[in-house]
Design goal:
CATH topology of the largest domain: Beta Polymerase, domain 2
Distance between the termini: 75 Å
Shape: elongated
Number of strands: 11
Strand order of the largest sheet: 3-4-5-2-1-8-9
CATH superfamily of the largest domain: Beta Polymerase, domain 2
Helix content: 40-55%
Largest sheet: 7 strands, mixed
Bound molecules: adenosine-5'-triphosphate, magnesium ion
CATH architecture of the largest domain: 2-Layer Sandwich
Number of helices: 20
Radius of gyration: 28 Å
Structural class: alpha+beta
Length: about 400
């Protein structure tokens, strides 16, 4: 079977045959040397985006302004970026100037860490001008070039170093670490969206206890929104469990433990989407419910199918209790209904049945009571049975 690497090599061959240099670069070279699965391959070339576009049938112009196009081949996407150098990062968000170069080493020298600054040619030879391979073997994260300058150029690299430490269980080389410490205050100038991406990866990683510990020891949380205003929250970070399914879930965890923090504080400060907001609030409600009643039919009904795994991780880290996502899913699927839409009656039916009652909040409340009784199994999900029960309910209420 053809692998993603084979397809990448075919693209390289096409570029080489047209007289251009082309290499696999960045994370894919690193992960291959670490024997980790590679799902995503980036290529670098001295061909300009226009030249790349002319050579391939399916090209998507995703980031022409910084020299990147996506080449589609065999249903896979490859980012192909023209060799470039970057000058000045006065806003800490975008380089002021990007210029194309024809030399691979110059392109590799703008990359963040030695392990990310290697290239692989069509024959599989590794080009490694900054000794990235040796650092990989020594399990060290080391800045390319002068660390103080590199973190000044783009302080996001500080967060990237910490998240790679978390993902790979590597140490940070001493000069690199010291420069991270010196440049740490620049973190506050970064766009929060970029910060979020790196923190998200850090918190999901296998070695995140170590990553989190290193981040905390460096003092990172003194410069991050929400955390910087609360020493008690930073104490919680120090003792925090992980990994979680993502940053969102870690925030739910922290807000659960540190009740004075409303989830919405995190949601606003980290500009989380409405979808994340909804899922986080639901997880939070369900945790509260779990704390008072444990696993029940109502609890699994309330749990969204897609969130069951996340919920189990949270329960494990908060209460130390091991729930099986499969068991919860089975219990959920065995319920008489999966959602309110499946109830055998709706609002119209109930209004028709109780014509003497004026519209009002009673209708919503009634549907909720019916729903709970159907979920718990005390009322069958049959229209006639529910209507009989409703009549009885109102008679007994008015008696
Ligand atoms: P991942 O496996 O998480 O995608 P990656 O190393 O591929 O890790 P990307 O963010 O996809 O990380 O970036 C691809 C490559 O681009 C990196 O390996 C590195 O060479 C370079 N790079 C990315 N971000 C920066 C940065 N802020 N400064 C310098 N080089 C960077
Ligand atoms: Mg990548």
């Amino acid at each position: 079977m053809q692998t993603i690497d084979d397809v990448a090599k075919k693209i390289i061959a096409t570029l080489n045959e047209a007289g251009f240099q082309a290499y696999i670069v960045g994370g894919a070279v690193r992960d291959k040397l670490l024997n980790k699965p590679v799902n995503d391959i980036d290529l670098a070339t001295d061909a300009t985006p226009t030249e790349v576009t002319a050579l391939f049938e399916h090209v998507i112009p995703v980031g022409i302004e910084h020299g990147t196009v996506i080449v589609r081949a065999d249903h896979l996407s490859f980012e192909v970026t023209t060799f470039r150098e970057e000058a000045g990062y006065s806003d800490f968000r975008h380089p002021d100037e990007v210029s194309y170069v024809t030399d691979l080493t110059t392109d590799l020298s703008r990359r963040d860490f030695t392990m990310n600054a290697m290239a692989e040619n069509k024959q599989g030879t590794i080009i490694d001008p900054f000794d990235g391979k040796a650092d990989l073997q020594a399990r060290l994260i080391r800045a390319v070039g002068e660390p103080l300058e590199r973190f000044q150029e783009d302080p996001l690299r500080i967060l990237r170093a910490l998240r790679f430490a978390s993902q790979l269980g590597f140490m940070i080389e001493t000069n690199t670490y010291e420069a991270m410490q010196t440049r740490l205050p620049l973190i506050t100038a970064l766009a929060i969206e970029r910060v979020r991406v790196e923190l998200d990866k850090l918190i999901q990683a296998e070695n995140c206890r170590m990553g989190l510990h290193q981040a905390e020891a460096l003092g990172l949380f003194d410069y991050l929104p929400v955390f910087k205003d609360s020493p008690s929250l930073i104490m919680k970070v120090r003792a925090s469990e992980c990994p979680f399914n993502g940053l969102t879930d870690w925030f739910v965890y922290l807000a659960y433990l540190e009740k004075q923090f409303d989830l919405s504080t995190f949601i606003k400060a980290y500009k989380l989407s409405n979808k994340d907001k909804q899922v986080m609030n639901d997880l939070d409600d369900t945790l509260m419910f779990y704390q008072s009643t444990g696993v029940s039919d109502r609890l699994v009904y309330q749990l969204d199918k897609a969130s069951i795994h996340r919920f189990c991780v949270l329960v494990f880290h908060i209460f130390g209790e091991n729930l099986s996502p499969d068991d919860l899913l089975d219990q959920k699927q065995a319920l008489p209904i999966q959602s309110r839409q499946e109830l055998a009656v709706d609002g119209h039916d109930l209004r028709r049945l109780l014509t003497d009652k004026a519209p009002g909040p009673w209708l919503r409340e009634l549907i909720e009571v019916i729903e709970q009784n159907v979920v718990s199994g005390s009322l069958p999900n049959k229209k006639r049975a529910i209507e009989e029960w409703v009549k009885w309910y109102y008679q007994s209420e008015n008696a």
